[in-house]
Amino acid sequence: MKGRLKRNQKKRKMNKHHLRPKSRGGSKVQSNLILIDMERHNAWHILWGNRTLDEIIELLIRLREIKKSQSYEVHNQLKLNFSD
Ligand SMILES: [Zn+2]
Fold this sequence. Notes:
- With 84 residues, the protein is mainly α.
- 62% of the residues lie in helices and 12% in strands.
- The protein has 3 helices and 2 strands, in the order H-E-E-H-H.
- It is elongated, with a radius of gyration of 21 Å.
- It starts with a helix and ends with a helix.
- The mean pLDDT is 86.
- The structure holds zinc ion (ZN).
- The site of zinc ion has 4 residues, from strand 1 and helix 2.
């Protein structure tokens, strides 16, 4: 299993992704880089642009809060409609 995983990784072209983007002052130090295959790397930037991981997490938390408040509003509206 481990050997097969290694072979699959060799077939893929690996890219270095900057956790803090170069365009925003991110450097080439190892702690700022992750290795990711090219397909996933492209998908990452299509989805998230040059946002940092912290910014993405913040965005997802905000979206979850919006979703929660919307379902709360819908729930309350349904209750009002049924009690009429
Ligand atoms: Zn990248």
